[in-house]
Amino acid sequence: MRFPVTEHVVKTARHTSFYLACGAEQAPLIVFVHGWPELSISWRHQLQCFAALGFRAIAPDMRGYGRSTVHPRIADYGMEQITADMIELLDGLGVQSAIWVGHDWGSPVVWSLAQHHAQRVAGVASLCVPYLPDGFSPENLIPLIDRKLYPADLHPAGQWDYQLFYREHFERAVATFEADVLRTVKALFRKGDPAGRGKPGRLAFVRREGGWFGGASVAPDLPMDRDLLTQEDLSRYVSALQTNGFAGPDAWYMNAQANMAFAARAAGTSHLTMPVLFFHASYDYTCDTVETALPEPMRAACHDLTELTVPTGHWMAQERPELVNAGLARWLAHTFPKHWAV
């Protein structure tokens, strides 16, 4: 049975969350949480698939994106506030718990939910970004850098250099992305390249080069990567980011201290006992979890961890949705048999 994808809103006094939904309303809930600089449509290949498998699949536009609230202050984009958005979303749906799936910045969101609200998390899956119990921040990422690839004297912040650029030149980063949003989206959404394995990633040079895109004031005009996007997908991303701008999305990078303090308050619940699934991306050279120590804190802190590797770049759910869907479906069938459609 093919379910339609429908549009909905949960509104509270503090925040409005727009979300896409697919599947029977009373079916077990699975929530897909996007990252930077995306939208609910980033999960377009997953919504109908998991609805057909017997779930109520939803994907919100996150804070600062699409048709959800764009808050005015940088400090409005910390994990504590964003996690509260997701709890309000769950409350608005009248559901006690869900299976949560995150990618990119959506991953720290679902990890934070598991840390702080374990009773609302039946299981958690993450694409590309592993669990850091002390918080997702450069301070906790830099000690895990592969120093053979990124010698400290040449690359003190390794592939996380770009995150420090936001701190030092936030307005310049925003202006560069907004200078030509169509070109920005086309430049960012690229499939994985196996040839990059063993070489320093491009984001390790952002500060040295004076900004994204080699320090240029605008993104290069590249052809759309049709292995990730259709023209309709591209148009929807561009329209949303032109409407809202990049200040909200970029502000997610600016709250490391608050995010670490938030994680510290969950120190007693930082060991996750619910089932966890993690997808490694073979050709993601920023979140390189294949040959580095980056996933080690997750392995130490998760009681029931399953790991899969997909031959993609960072945008795996859009690059190879059939592999992501198959891996997630196998895990769900094995781990949550009572949820599974009969």
Detailed description of the structure:
This protein is 35% helix and 16% strand. The protein is an alpha/beta fold and 342 residues long. Strands 1-2-4-3-5-6-7-8 form an 8-stranded mixed β-sheet, sandwiched between helices. A hairpin with a 4-residue loop joins β1 (6-11) and β2 (16-22). It is globular, with a radius of gyration of 19 Å. The relative contact order is 0.16. The model has no long low-confidence stretch (mean pLDDT 96).
**Content of β-strand:** 15-25%
Shape: globular
Give the C-alpha Rg: 19 Å
Average pLDDT metric = 96
Summarize the structure.
The protein is an alpha/beta fold. It has helices at 44-52, 79-93, 106-116, 138-141, 161-168, 170-179, 181-188, 231-244, 247-251, 256-264, 296-301, 316-319, 321-335; strands at residues 6-11, 16-22, 29-33, 56-60, 98-103, 121-127, 272-281, 302-310.
Keywords:
342 residues; single chain; 35% helix; alpha/beta; eight-stranded mixed beta sheet; 8 strands
What's the topology here?
Blueprint: E1 6-11, E2 16-22, E3 29-33, H1 44-52, E4 56-60, H2 79-93, E5 98-103, H3 106-116, E6 121-127, H4 138-141, H5 161-168, H6 170-179, H7 181-188, H8 231-244, H9 247-251, H10 256-264, E7 272-281, H11 296-301, E8 302-310, H12 316-319, H13 321-335
Parallel strand pairs: 3-4, 3-5, 5-6, 6-7, 7-8
Antiparallel strand pairs: 1-2, 2-4
